[in-house]
Design a protein that fits this description.
Elements: E1 2-7, H1 17-25, E2 28-34, H2 37-40, H3 47-67, E3 71-74, H4 78-88, E4 93-95, H5 102-117, E5 121-122, H6 148-155, H7 175-183, H8 209-221, H9 227-230, H10 243-247, H11 253-266, H12 270-295, H13 317-325, H14 331-343, H15 348-361, H16 366-376, H17 382-393, H18 407-414, H19 419-424, H20 433-438, H21 443-449, H22 458-475
Parallel strand pairs: 1-2, 1-4, 2-3, 4-5
Helix pairs in contact: 4-5, 6-12, 8-11, 11-12, 12-17, 14-15, 15-17, 16-17
This protein binds flavin-adenine dinucleotide (FAD).
Flavin-adenine dinucleotide is lined by residues 231, 239-243, 246-247, 282-283, 285-286, 289, 348, 351-352, 355, 373, 377, 379-381, 384-385, 387-389, 392.
Length: 476
């Protein structure tokens, strides 16, 4: 019996829950990936992300060939494409792993019905990209969590599965069946350019399972032991940069977890263990936001907290453009935005700084920033990005009522030598460190190097924000 395995956010054959379950059902397993126009034609797709994804698919095809099978590629709406392909190649069942996003949930329900109508089984119901399912995590009163700390305390006590077996020695399609698959729409993998996405820059992480595994090993061998401190400095290479691999499931989350357990076992001091635990907490943030998206799909449409549902955000296209392009006159903000525009990735500390700046200094709707991030991030992910933006805008699941980042004090703490600023804002390279970290660059000097005046005054703007917040609180 042939089983069709539909890859979505699990572009790997190792430690893949659904794929391992498919292999247990039958020795004949064929993979498929669907280039979904509903996703690719949205206006929040980053060329860098598609480029990475296509690279990963290429590697995945190679992996399938190594184990004796194929990864088919469809360019179609999966609602029609998947059942039609399954029927054409006479698949007995279609397997896949669950996804938390509202779009995927709805799409999957429709496809399950379409498969049923054709008499094809949908057997698999696996959570694969998270360590614990949303059903496993409930508060004392049996509600989903909306606050991270109690979530973490409960989550860390729950058992976590070991990595599952890598797909090996499978049977694929015969040549005749491959011809049938072609007739049903299977095609060769297009390049990102063929799909209209042009990214000429380098990728922060090479595509594919092997590169992600290597990155994990490198990070857990050393940087993880200093993570708690080093992760805050954007000029330092102190974080894993595994976010894109995790977004597309190029590495299994159980494999990542196991690496942290091994690092803990090898740690020789309590101090080292604390650093490793801190990184585990970041993985828990990732799960917290995925569970949140699953439990509260309305998060995708706007503010979680009532106070922010009708917030009087300001419309100012000029300010928004200056923020997008890294021309606000605030060096740390501009460095961060240019890092994202040029490399497709931004350091977490800076994501918080620029999100605070857009919402608290420019008083611009966080949804605009959220979308701009999706248009530029290699790791752009609905749950994490929405969670980060709602946290920064104070509109989401953060118990602190209003959090405002001061760009100057953030720089003094986390880029004290102005190294990161100089790396990304080339016109500021020769400017004194003191000026860079306080943001108080004299007008003459700004003019001389071609760097703009601050577009707003942080002190005045934060008062404005607080005032509006107080008014909304009364109204809501
Ligand atoms: P590490 O520090 O090595 O962390 C390990 C992994 O944990 C990350 O790869 C990521 O999967 C997860 N993680 C870490 N921090 C967070 C967090 N705060 N929330 C959720 N998961 C986390 N992350 C994304 O993956 N995609 C996004 O689109 C995204 N948008 C963000 C937007 C804003 C406004 C903010 C404040 C944060 C956003 N983050 C997003 C979270 C975080 O900034 C990135 O995950 C992190 O910078 C990726 O770098 P890293 O892999 O080196 O992380």
């Amino acid at each position: 019996d042939l089983i069709l395995f539909w890859h979505r956010r699990d572009l790997r054959i190792s430690d893949n829950t659904g794929l391992a379950a498919a292999k247990q059902q039958s020795p004949k397993v064929v993979g498929v990936f669907c280039l979904d126009p509903n996703i690719l034609e949205r206006d929040d797709v980053a060329p860098v992300r598609v480029t990475y994804m296509i690279g990963c698919l290429q590697k995945l095809q190679e992996r399938y060939a190594q184990v004796g099978s194929q990864l088919l590629i469809l360019h179609a709406n999966p609602v029609q494409g998947i059942p039609a392909l399954a029927e054409a190649i006479n698949a007995k069942a279609v397997f896949w792993n669950w996804d938390v996003e509202p779009y995927s949930q709805e799409r999957d329900r429709t496809i399950i019905n379409a498969l049923k109508e054709k008499g094809i089984q949908f057997l698999n119901q696996n959570w694969d990209q998270i360590l614990n399912s949303p059903e496993q995590l409930r508060t004392g009163s049996n509600q989903p969590y909306t606050v991270y700390t109690p979530f973490w305390k409960n989550w860390i006590t729950k058992p976590k599965a070991n990595p599952v077996e890598t797909l090996q020695n499978v049977e694929g399609l015969t040549e005749a069946e491959q011809e049938i698959a072609k007739l049903a729409g299977a095609l060769t993998l297009p390049s990102a350019k063929d799909l209209g996405f042009i990214w000429d820059g380098e990728l922060i992480i090479s595509p594919g399972e092997a590169a992600a595994q290597e990155r994990l090993e490198e990070f857990t061998a050393k940087a993880i032991t200093e993570y708690q401190e080093q992760r805050n400095f954007p000029a330092v290479d102190g974080t894993s940069q595994l976010s894109a691999a995790l977004k597309f499931g190029v590495i299994g989350i159980r494999t990542v977890w196991q690496a942290t357990i091994e690092a803990l076992e090898n740690s020789r001091s309590e101090e080292t263990a604390v650093n490793i635990r801190t990184w585990q907490q970041e993985l828990a943030w990732r799960e917290f936001y995925q569970h949140a998206m699953y439990n509260f799909p309305e998060l995708a449409d706007g503010a979680f907290r009532d106070t922010f549902k009708n917030f009087p955000w300001q419309t100012n296209e000029e300010h928004f453009q200056a923020w997008c392009e890294g021309r606000t006159g605030y060096p740390i903000v501009d460095a961060a935005m240019r890092q994202m525009n040029e490399s497709g990735w931004m350091h977490n500390r800076c994501r918080m700084i620029v999100a605070s700046f857009l919402t608290k200094d420019l008083l611009i709707n966080p949804q605009l920033g959220e979308k701009y991030f999706m248009q530029h991030l290699i790791d752009g992910d609905l749950s994490a990005n929405n969670g980060g933006w709602q946290w920064s805008a104070s509109s989401g699941m953060d118990p602190k009522p209003v959090r405002i980042f001061n760009p100057a004090s953030q720089t003094q703490k986390f880029d004290p030598e102005g190294e990161y600023i100089r790396q990304w804002v080339s016109e500021l390279r020769s400017v004194d460190t003191e000026y860079l970290v306080t943001g108080k660059i004299p007008s003459l000097e700004r003019h001389a190097v071609g760097y703009p005046e601050p577009i707003v005054d942080h002190k005045i703007q934060q008062q404005q924000f607080k005032l509006r917040y107080q008014q909304q609180k009364v109204l809501s």
